[in-house]
Structures are given as C-alpha cells and as structure tokens.
Amino acid sequence: EFALQAAARGVPVLRLPRRELDALSRGRPHQGVCLEAAPLPFRSLRDAEEPRLRDGHGESRQLLWLVLEHIQDPMNLGALLRSAYFLGVDRVVATDSNSCPLTPIVSKASAGAMEVFDVYSTDDLQGFLKAKKAEGWEVVGAVSNPEDVEDVPVISCSEFRWDKPIIVVIGSEGEGLSLETQLQCHRVLAIAPGRALHPGIDSLNVSVATGILLHSICSQRRRHGD
C-alpha cells in the first residue's frame, strides 16, 4: 500500500535490507518503512498571518495559542504537538534558543502532526508576549509547584474560564517557566493532584500536564459552540 501511494505521487521506492532501514532510522523503531524528506524548519512569526481577534459581530474569537519555552526533549515536543493538533490549538510557538529542533524523532512522536501543523518560533519571547497582551490576549502560564510562583495569581485549571483569545505558556522539563515569563502572565494554572504526593513524585510529565490543561480549556470551546 505504501509503495502504491508513493508511486502515485512520483516518489521513488527502494527495497532495502532491514539492517539498512535500522541505520536510516538510527536504531529507532521504523515498522519496515522509512521516508527520506527535506528538513522541516520552524516558521517565522514575522511571516505569519495575523488572526482576526473579533468576528463579524464584534465578539471576541476563541483563539488558543500554545507557547513552548525551552522544551528540549524531542519525545516531549512530539507529544505536545500531537496533543495541540488533536485538541484544536490554533498555533504553536517555540522559543528559538535552548529548544529542540523539528527532528525526525519529533515527527514520529507527534504521529505525523508535525508534518501538517505549522510550528512557529520567536527569538524574543518576552517581547512577543508583551505585544500580544497589548492586543488584548490573555497570557496564562502553567506550573507544577504553585509555591514557586511570585506576584502572579495561581488558580486550578478547572476554575479557569476562557472568555478571550489566550496564550498558554509551557516551560522547560527541568526548570519550568522562567521568572521573566511568569511575570508576563496574567494568571498561572495548576493541576490539583488526586492524593498526597510522595516527595520527588510531585509533578507530571510536561506533555501529559499540557494535554490535561489544553483539554480543560478546549472543552469550554465546545460548550460555547453548542
């Protein structure tokens, strides 16, 4: 089936020994098929079309952007893109520095979402967030430990009400959101645990936590649509 689809699109098909496929995929699972493709770069926000924040009736549109600050693990990045695409996030923006590039591992972890869902980048996260706040966007961060947040209100994600275009900012696997980024947030969202947590097991994987937060927010979009 793959060979027929490739031929229909003019893509050459080579049949190779498994050891050569193993080498092409750098030892990662390939299920018997590899595709050689050009690198996929981040898109520049400077070239992105600016969305309309209001509909024809003057109502705020329920836009949702996901911003990733220094996500470095390709499996996490792929899982984040997969969740964002599935749940209806309108745009994903990643920081240029200290972030994982769009690699084959990211693509596979995203289950192909990376190939059909543009990912943008910014080299000035603080400036980007300031500009969006001035345009009327709400900026909300996410943290695993609310005690680490200073000078920004922290609420449970289940209490958050989505009533304007929002940007959800997710921090790196090890450090979370930088202090500079936290201070750009109107509010910070936290996920309440279901039990008293043992020391050292007090947080979620970043992609799992983001999926929970996005589902909590996006479910409000569906209710409003009804």
From TrEMBL:
PANTHER family (alphabetical): RRNA METHYLTRANSFERASE 1, MITOCHONDRIAL
Keyword list, A-Z: Methyltransferase, Mitochondrion, rRNA processing, S-adenosyl-L-methionine, Transferase, Transit peptide
SUPFAM superfamilies registered for this protein in UniProt: alpha/beta knot, L30e-like
Cellular location(s): Mitochondrion
Cellular component annotations (GO), alphabetically ordered: mitochondrion
Molecular function via GO: RNA binding; rRNA (guanine) methyltransferase activity
Domain tRNA/rRNA methyltransferase SpoU type: 65-215
Gene3D superfamilies, sorted: 3.30.1330.30, 3.40.1280.10
Pfam families referenced in this protein's UniProt entry, alphabetically: SpoU_methylase, SpoU_sub_bind
Family listed: Belongs to the class IV-like SAM-binding methyltransferase superfamily. RNA methyltransferase TrmH family.
Organism from which the protein derives: Pomatostomus ruficeps
Keyword Transferase appears in the UniProt entry: yes
RNA 2-O ribose methyltransferase substrate binding domain residues: 4-41
UniProt-recorded name of the protein: rRNA methyltransferase 1, mitochondrial
Top-level lineage group: Eukaryota
